[in-house]
Amino acid sequence: MWNKVRELLVSSSSFRFKVMFISIICLVIPATFTLFIYNYLTKDTIKEQAHSNANRELTIANEYVEKLLEDMMYISNFIQVDAEMNTILKRKIKSTADQTSQQKYEQFLDDSKIIKTLENITLVGGKSYVTILLENGISYTNYSNYELNPKDIYNENWFKELNKIKGYETVWISSQPTMFKSEKPINPYQISIARTLRDDSLNIYGYVIVTIMENKINQIFENMNGKEEMILLDSSNQIISHTNDDRIGEKFKYSDQLTEENSSNIFEISKKDYLIAEQKISFTGWKLVSLIPYKQATSKINTIFNKVVAFQVLFFTIFLILMTYLLRTITKPIVRLGNVADLVQQGDLNIRSRIKSKDEIGRLSSSFDQMLNTINKMIQDITATQERKRKAELDMLQAQINPHFLFNVLNSIRMKVMVKGDKDSANMISSLSKLLRMTISKDKEIITFQEEVQIVLDFINIMNMRQKEKVDVEITIHEEANLIMIPRFILQPIIENSIIHGLNQSAGKIIVNAEMTENEVMIMIEDNGGGMDEQTLFHLKRKFIHSNTLDNSPSKNNKGFSSIGISNVYERMYMTFGQEFKMDIKSELGKGTQVIMSIPKGGRRPNVQSNAS
């Protein structure tokens, strides 16, 4: 079978088919087994089983506890409703000190009957301490006065509640410190039930108190087979009985985890899940609670899951071996192609993969070999191009001798003009020389703002010599703004537009201002020329904002700025600073024009090379 599978994979021309086939065999089959087992033994089943186990153990314990408490209630009910005993007790409450010998004998017989009755009824359900207190101070007990003086019961805090109950109501007294001397060393707490004895007029003539030791309930908890922690709580969630005596009387912290009676829930304590369950003891108002770590509650079911996981690991191991074997068969060409790529990366461009197969790897190998052939050819072409480029650069260097010669001649003319006393002409030649040098120089595409301002000053100097009326310039530059780097000839086209179009080559004033803010550098060029109307300003803004598109709509007014120079400035600044660069033009007829440029403060800064150039 496996030989047929291998033949199918080798004969197939599609690499994709091979990968899909292997994926189906090695992944889908174990995944199907996993899903089947997981659906069979779900997490919900675990939780339901854990709740069921906890409730079952709690039900068993609840039955034992209820039986113990029912025995106490039976004793109190018997004393309260037994006709003979009530007759004797009522007669006893009416007895006087002056009695005949016959009456004393009858009272002795009555006392013997009550004591014998108390001894008989307490044999039903384990050891219980029964106390009958009458209003005239007479008391009957099934224990000696050495154990406890019955009159001490009057001093207990809970005793006052007996006078508040009605009819046959019962007062259940949760764990109290043991009052019986022989029990104190071994049983520190006791649990009691108390009732009133009433005559035909429903007046109280006595009290019945039945007491057991708390350890009887504790023994029930210890005899349970489960590992849960059993707790008996009163109606206010105070602990009545617990395997740890130190916790009796404390407030149970986790009672709010159960929102319904006779329910169970899973919650977290110290990053560990616990299962809590509750069952109510109806006739007492108390409730029985079990608390167990969730892992212990689900240990048996987890054992089943562990076995399932073991089988899964076994199956996946088998399928992994199968996947490895099959993938190794079809990935050998890929490994070969990877080794060839490593050699190419090391510089060997003469190596070829030469993998001959019909699938995608074979076509990739053929394309890879063709790519290497193309690269070798391109290297040869680039080498020849570089040689021609070096030759062109030598010719260019040689051609630069002519501009340098021109600068030297201009400087010589300027010196001779200055010697003859024509300072204006000398300054004009000097400014022209600087502008010409800056225009031709290729090493200063990016210059400082201070250098750009100097270009503007030289340009205005030349323009003032050409015009009959001079243009005044006012420059206010923040000291830090002088250091920002911008493309050269950014201000000059704007100044030229102001002189030619704004001032109409007449006298006027141009203000150049550069201010620093927290995030940007604001550059403002303002003139007091004729300005532009709204339509001309609209077409101008449209020109420089959409300078990368064809928009040759002519302006109806010859006044205003030249859109060619402004578009050039905007495009070069946008290419340098990106979308953070902003440019705006404001103008009104008769009020001049203002150009505002915003450059990000983190823009270009001069370096050592640019300063030295």
UniProtKB/TrEMBL annotation:
<keyword id="KW-0418">Kinase</keyword>
<dbReference type="InterPro" id="IPR010559">
    <property type="entry name" value="Sig_transdc_His_kin_internal"/>
</dbReference>
<dbReference type="InterPro" id="IPR036890">
    <property type="entry name" value="HATPase_C_sf"/>
</dbReference>
<dbReference type="Pfam" id="PF02743">
    <property type="entry name" value="dCache_1"/>
</dbReference>
<feature type="transmembrane region" description="Helical">
    <location>
        <begin position="20"/>
        <end position="41"/>
    </location>
</feature>
<dbReference type="InterPro" id="IPR003660">
    <property type="entry name" value="HAMP_dom"/>
</dbReference>
<dbReference type="Pfam" id="PF02518">
    <property type="entry name" value="HATPase_c"/>
</dbReference>
<feature type="domain" description="HAMP">
    <location>
        <begin position="328"/>
        <end position="380"/>
    </location>
</feature>
<feature type="transmembrane region" description="Helical">
    <location>
        <begin position="308"/>
        <end position="327"/>
    </location>
</feature>
<dbReference type="Pfam" id="PF00672">
    <property type="entry name" value="HAMP"/>
</dbReference>
<dbReference type="InterPro" id="IPR050640">
    <property type="entry name" value="Bact_2-comp_sensor_kinase"/>
</dbReference>
<dbReference type="InterPro" id="IPR003594">
    <property type="entry name" value="HATPase_dom"/>
</dbReference>
<keyword id="KW-0472">Membrane</keyword>
<keyword id="KW-0812">Transmembrane</keyword>
<dbReference type="GO" id="GO:0016301">
    <property type="term" value="F:kinase activity"/>
</dbReference>
<dbReference type="InterPro" id="IPR033479">
    <property type="entry name" value="dCache_1"/>
</dbReference>
<keyword id="KW-0808">Transferase</keyword>
<keyword id="KW-1133">Transmembrane helix</keyword>
<keyword id="KW-0597">Phosphoprotein</keyword>
<keyword id="KW-1003">Cell membrane</keyword>
<dbReference type="Pfam" id="PF06580">
    <property type="entry name" value="His_kinase"/>
</dbReference>
<protein>
    <submittedName>
        <fullName>Histidine kinase</fullName>
    </submittedName>
</protein>
